[in-house]
Amino acid sequence: MSKKAKIAFVCQECGADYPRWNGQCTSCGEWNAIKEVRLGAVASERNNRSLGYAGSVSEVKLLSDVSLAQAERIATGMSEFDRVLGGGIVTGSVVLIGGAPGAGKSTLLLQAIANIAIQGVPVLYVSGEESLQQIAERAHRLGLPADKIMMLAETSVQRICDVLDEIQPKVLVIDSIQVVYSQDVESAPGSVSQVRESASYLTQYAKKHHISIFMVGHVTKDQSLAGPMTLSHIVDTQVMLSSTDDARFRVLRADKNRFGSVGELGFFAMDSAGLKEVKNPSAMFLNRPDKPSPGSVVTVLWEGTRPLLVEIQALVTECQYGNPRRLAVGFDQNRLAMLLAVLTRHGGIFTANDEIYANVVGGIRVTETSSDLAIIVGIVSSFRDKVIPHEAFFFGEIGLSGEIRPVANGQSRLNDAAKHGFKIAVIPKANAPKKRIEGLQIHPVATLSEALDVVSQL
Length: 458
Prior knowledge:
The protein is of the alpha/beta class. 26% of the residues lie in helices and 26% in strands. A 9-stranded mixed beta sheet has the order 8-7-9-10-6-11-12-13-14. The chain has a 4-stranded mixed beta sheet with strand order 15-16-18-17. The chain has a 3-stranded antiparallel beta sheet with strand order 2-1-3, with no helix packed on it.
């Protein structure tokens, strides 16, 4: 006697489920978005969800009995990509890579699996959007070894897993998860329920058979990943590939990583031969003119596990049309307003009647507070029309009471700046090194007024 199929009613917009059909979803308010979904209609091992995402039967264990063996990793041959992943591809992991159209997601993965295939590791590239001929033409243009990469044009997740059982690759690429569908879900590919079920299906297979899977994900208009939020929770690693404002470079950022640090950045340059690694990203963002100008300063950010030198430019000009503008590009607009208030209160510089523009050169996005001091110095430099020497750099967080707070990894920031030829450092007093750094003159400061006094003497 056949088992009766379980029925659920799922909203295709937000993923909420109901015991019966409703005309309107009470979670997101959409009408006619709730569809019937068949769960477990086929009684087979492949559809057995009791195994969970881990791909094995659950059992109670003591924490001390769990093996601490290091996970096996596969090197992609691209050090920047490996850095973002935490040191390479972990066997049995699921990586979701998102990005805007044309960012280079497919190109990056094609180059990565080509390097893996050269090592003798079997790989499979599953395309649901492009034809195999288009991918072959791209591989030929990039000069990749076409005889070592297995290809498949398929969108059915059940059929994909059947092929995996036959050829047993170690690395799989799904391009993209939004076009893959499960035969057990009665909705169009790309819907919330299809994306969730297909991702769960593939994740369970990856854990059970120790195969590493890359899923390409689409993004929405606001540059967030399309599909249910469950997708981000299911995968082990989530990375985003984006371009800088001038579109010359690509930045790969880890937003989630169970096997490495979050916030790690990898830098690439796009040309006719594909994505090329940028070994020294600080040099990329420090392409400054020979003649220094007011408002230009350098700071040292900490991205992931390494320092990054970037240039910050500020412009203070007289307001011409009533309400003065405050515009920040590359960092938080509200933080700029806060720093200007601190500058007025504790620095004695009144800028309420001036328009102020601040920009992080190169299109990099600053997400930490260590750039506060550099932003203030840039504004003061432009306000006073004073040129900051090229060999000087600044970092430090500024508090509301005008104090200069220390930042993490101060010693590593100083060493990296010294390696790039910088000779003058204005830093928080708590970050002052105990040993002298050769060729580097350090000015430790505790308050904003002390920092401005040092700047006036440079």
